[in-house]
Design brief:
β3, α1 and β4 form a beta-alpha-beta unit. α2 packs across α3 and α3 packs across α8. The chain has eleven helices and ten strands. The strands form two sheets. The chain has an eight-stranded mixed β-sheet with strand order 1-2-4-3-5-6-9-10, with helices on both faces. The protein has a two-stranded antiparallel sheet with strand order 7-8. It starts with a strand and ends with a helix. It has a single domain, classed as 3-Layer(aba) Sandwich (Rossmann fold). The protein is of the alpha/beta class.
Amino acid sequence: MDIAVEGGTLRVLTWGSGERVVVALHGITGSGMSWQCAGNRMPDGWTLVAPDLRGRGCSADLPPPFGINQHIDDITAVLDHYGEAEARPVLAGHSMGAFIALLTRDAHPELASRTVLIDGGLPLPFPAGADPDQVLDATLGPAIERLGRVYPDEAAYLDFWRAHPALAGHWTADVEDYVRYDIQPAEGGVRSRARPDAVRADGRDLLLGAERFGDALERLPDPTALLTAPMGMFGAPPGLQPPELVAAWSDRAPRLRPSLVADTNHYTIMFGPRGAEAVVSALTSPLL
């Protein structure tokens, strides 16, 4: 379905038809399809709603501005749409989506019943005096380069992802659906739907927003699950939210409830059975 937002409509994918709703946000180069593995495991009585964030998936044609503040406005519209449900939605996010969920709940605590953070949400230290664009190139440069690359055909794009170190040995129908959903025609072949300019704008906000994210963590209104993976974006340690960072923020944010999902990486915490089962449990089981 499509929900009206500034500049057009936001594409929203849904799984289930229950009255309890989860609004689930994907990562910086992903799409709503990253939630399919969890969506297919939601229990009766629940619906999982996963928007394609502005600049990604079938929301790629939405115009600028990009950045975290625009995502907050867009997700506020989605939460408003489901505001007539029997209970306020659960707001969840993976990777960049966790940071958006955190700030959206902080800005509009009345619109969601609680928040679930998945391998994201804890600000990483930013070197004093560093150039954010240089840091962005060092961290997200390969991902941004991939978004601008044209592949000869769908098979070549699938082969690229099959060889990804975090997914090698973990290829499933859900992963293939996710990758196929991201493909769009381009001159000379196919490319990702995700817009490099949107990814770059969001990446800068993530790098420069440490104080803002930290303040929101300290103001969490209720117990908040944080699921983390021990392995990172390339299938090896450390994870994106390493144990020492989790421990530091657990002291500063007393309502944070961290849980390590063993034998997962930044992708398989969403795409693998072990990760998806842990995610669904966190989405549907309120913390005390």
